[in-house]
Design a protein that fits this description.
Blueprint: H1 3-23, E1 35-40, H2 51-59, E2 63-65, H3 81-97, E3 102-108, H4 110-121, E4 127-131, H5 141-158, E5 165-169, E6 178-182, H6 183-190, H7 198-203, E7 211-216, H8 225-228, E8 240-244, H9 251-254, H10 256-264
Parallel strand pairs: 1-2, 1-3, 3-4, 4-7, 7-8
Antiparallel strand pairs: 5-6
Helix pairs in contact: 5-6
Amino acid sequence: MTLKTLSRLFIVFILGVGVTACQTAKVDPIGGARIGMVLMHGKGGTSNHIDSLADSLRGAGVLVETPLMPWGKGRIYDKTYDDSMLEIDAAVNRLKAKGAKRIVVGGHSLGANAALGYGARRDGLAGVILLAYGHVPSGRVFPSKLGSSIAKAKAMIDAGNGMKTAGFGDLNQGRTPSRSVRADIYYSWFAPDGPASDKNNAGNVKNGTPVLWVSGTQDRVSEFGKGLIYSKIPSHPKNNFVVIQSNHINTPRDSVKTVSGWLRGL
């Protein structure tokens, strides 16, 4: 093996160590009564985009669950919005069984929508964290681009065919995939005034529940999310809307200091 080859291997090794070391940012311990967090992935995904944040928080003493949710890869839209809340309940119960005393529910993109919905349906949460909020059925884009699919699902439900599967449109970061899903499930996620409605859920967050919203500078929702959704959340001294240098995908990874600092202040 030549000296030149050895040098290249050494450089690759050093870079690899550097990348590995950056995966989990070191976070100071988060004291007080032990926090348990349900941290949920985005649409069609798994925990891969939230693992770095989850691991950093675990290193600080937070108990973290990152379950594969009904909108995840291999499952996408296999349960209604309200039935998905029951899966969050199950994750919360697992955290309590491990010793969590305060429960925080957070999510990335569509997972943030679900976290907001959970905060509107359950009392006693220590906090709700919304990262790169996505899936906005109460905005202008969904009705304009998916109106025919939403109307189709509603017509099927009205005709007694809500349990039947059909093809419906979806939106995911500029892409427009087609989904084969039950009409009642689709409608629960996409109806502008349905269970997933951002404005309705924001306004119904339980009193006493603080909310942290983190958006990236390169994320489109940060441009209108504050006025459309965040402004509807009941006032709390620890509510915070933060914009960080990031994009939609990397916001969880880049939000470690913001999230850990907020949790430390609860």
